[in-house]
Structure formats: C-alpha cells, structure tokens
Design goal:
The chain has one domain: 2-Layer Sandwich (60s Ribosomal Protein L30, Chain: A), CATH 3.30.1330. The chain has 6 helices and 13 strands. The strands form 2 sheets. Strands 1, 2, 3, 4, 5, 6, 7 and 13 form an 8-stranded mixed β-sheet that branches. The chain starts with a helix and ends in a 12-residue tail after the last helix. It is of the alpha+beta class and about 270 residues long.
C-alpha cells in the first residue's frame, strides 16, 4: 500500500511540475508576442533608397504581398514607375499616369517604398489650412521632436487638391527623377473627402530617403489618388506614430548592383 502511495505521489509531482513548466512557457510566448508587436510598431521600413531611385533604379524584387507584411500603411512606386503606390489600412492602391486608381494584385513588383505598422502615438485637429505650407507649419508646432521618424494619417474635407503621378518608363531607362518629376502628369479635384498617408524624416537622412514630409493620398471613394502636391482643406484630423527604428532593404537586382550615384535630387525641403 505504501508503495502505491509513493508511486501516486511521484506521478502527481511530475504532473504538477509539467503543468507549471507549460504555464511558464505559455507566459513567455505571450510576453514575446507582446514585445514583438510593440517593437514592430516602431519600425520604419524602407525598400531601396531614394538615391538609387533618383538614379533610375526603377525595378525592384519585392512584391506587393511582401510589402504588406512590412506595414499597413505605405507610399512609393511600382516597377517601371507604373503608378504611385499608396497603402491605407492594409489595402494597396495603384494610381496610374492616366488617373485610374485600382487595387493591384499581390504579385506586382515594387521599385521603392516606405512602410510602417501604424500605432497612434498622438494627434490633433486643424480647422482649416489654405495650403501645404500651412499643414507643415501646424504639424511642426505639434511634433514632440524633429529628431525622430513619424508616420501620419490625415483625414479631412478637401476644398481642392493637386496630385502628381509619374509617366511609366520602359528599359533601358534614360530619364531620372530630376527630369520626370518636373514633367509629371498632374490631377486636380474639388470638394471631396479623403486621407493622406505619409512620413517625416529628419534632415540627417540625406539621400537615403526624402527629407522632411512626404505624403500620398487616396480619396474616400477611391477614385482619386497620387503624390500630394498642393491642397486646401478643413476639418483635418491628424494622427501620428513616432518611430525610433529604421530598417532599409536594398534591392538584389543587377540594376542596383551596378548603379552609379551620379545625380542628387530632393523635393523642396519641408
């Protein structure tokens, strides 16, 4: 009888120890998942570099599906400059040079992109802005610091907006962004709602990315989109996510391997 009791005691001890270990492992997994989610929200993901994009590296090896695994908001351009890239709340849009806006398939390749998982750190409202400069001034007055990276989602009522696209290119690429951007197709619209998505990079970013503010846009009805050039708006809701980690991935392509960084080009400093 004593032997039976001893055996039962050993079995119970083993079961209790095993349960405790499983609980500890489960807690560890949950803690790691929580930590991973927290860290992910503070990473600014950047595919290719601005300097390469300026110097005619217009083909990348990352797909739309891969880009969606790097963030739920993004801006950039597709291969051959075949449309401005906008991602809002996990949905990718393609704004082509003829003004058409569509949702591309997951296999389409991306030439250049900025992306992040948006995790709101702060926000504020703006009753009215008369132009892009007015928005920049309002944001600059509210940012905790201009030494970090920021992602933005800005919703509002737009009295008017001017968006730019890019003309699709075919290899061998002869014109760089210094030529293509000044001659870009421009689209305008009045009295509608929509959302700007974009990023702020400190001046120290140099030619790795666009310094200052860079915004793309998609209308609420998903029929108007592109690179934000100018606008007038009211009832703006500005949300921002401060990021202190920066990850950039270089294309593994022959074009990037052989590019010469001969030309420099930045949008007007903002």
């Amino acid at each position: 009888m004593k032997q039976v009791n001893i055996v039962l005691s050993i079995i119970i001890l083993i079961l209790v120890t095993s349960c405790k270990q499983e609980i500890k492992e489960d807690i560890k997994i949950q803690d790691n998942a929580s930590y991973s989610t927290q860290k992910k929200s503070d990473v600014f993901y950047h595919y290719s570099i601005w300097w390469a994009f300026v110097n005619k590296v217009f083909e990348g090896d990352i797909t739309a599906a891969e880009l969606k695994s790097k963030g739920d908001m993004a801006l950039g351009s597709y291969n051959f400059l075949d449309g401005e890239l906008i991602m809002l709340d996990g949905t990718l849009y393609q704004a082509k040079e003829n003004g058409e806006v569509s949702i591309p398939n997951d296999s389409i390749k991306v030439a250049y992109a900025n992306a992040a998982f948006f995790d709101k750190d702060g926000g504020f409202s703006i009753d009215k802005v008369d132009n892009y400069d007015g928005l920049r001034a309002a944001i600059n007055s509210k940012l905790p610091s201009k030494n970090f990276f920021y992602a933005f989602k800005i919703k509002g009522d737009f009295k008017n907006m001017k968006c730019g696209g890019l003309h699709k290119q075919e290899p061998p690429f002869e014109k760089g962004l210094d030529v293509l951007i000044p001659s870009r197709p421009i689209f305008e619209r009045e009295n509608f709602k929509g959302t700007m998505v974009g990023f702020y990079c400190p001046e120290f970013i140099g030619n790795i990315n666009v310094a200052g503010f860079h915004f793309h846009f998609v209308s609420e009805d998903k029929t108007f989109a592109g690179h934000v050039m100018e606008f007038e708006a009211e009832n703006l809701t500005v949300e921002f996510d401060e990021m202190n980690e920066y990850q950039f991935v270089l294309p593994e392509t022959e074009a990037y391997e052989n590019v010469g960084f001969d030309k420099e080009f930045q949008y007007e400093k903002k």
